[in-house]
Amino acid sequence: MPDSEIKIYPTAQHIAEVLASEIASLAIGAKEQGKIFNIALSGGTTPKRLYNVLAEIYAEDIPWEFVHIYWSDERCVAPDHPDSNYGFTKEHLLRYVPIPQKNIHPINGGEDSKSESVRYSEEIIETVPIADKLPRFDLVILGMGSDGHTASIFDDRLDLIESDRICVSTIHPATGQKRITLTGRVINNAAFIAFMITGMEKAAVAAAILDDNEDADDYPAAYIYPENGKIIWYLDEVAASDLQ
Asked: What is the pLDDT of residue 2?
């Protein structure tokens, strides 16, 4: 992926501070244009620092009434379960900022995964602007597993990269846990995709993808690249340590 923009920072905290500032600028810019800023958040624990910075520094600066929040994926658990991406975001961000409840669009992980993937797809179609016949998020924040998966697109379901659906039910190949995820075409239709990659355990896969090595094709994250948007990989120094 030679055309990706790569930004390397000393620590994960630096990444969180930079990306939080960029989110604030984008949201303010949307308000000035009278537009809604639609953002799909990442699951997992990587965004914790980002959420904390947004809550602690930008709670009053971001025009939250113009921000609508979605999720790129969700574990099929109740919202109060420790594994819930929505619950994690609520605990570290949503409870601290004045965002209207109607602006929050969680995936209902406690529901049947297949029917919920249909319902969430319909909600996205109804509320997110359409471009090139697909929903176009203003920003999608992604993480990456040490196995190269992103959102809940795993290496045994690379077909989801080009799926015609908005979101689908999938299964974690190692744990068997059911998930719901945005598909690759929807992610790639975003105006801006931000990958947050931190930790030594991500270094080898990040290098394979960003140095465009032969084995990069095995990793779902390698297929995330917007044709009509921009993508930036934010890496801390240890995650970038294997880059050539």
From this structure: 43
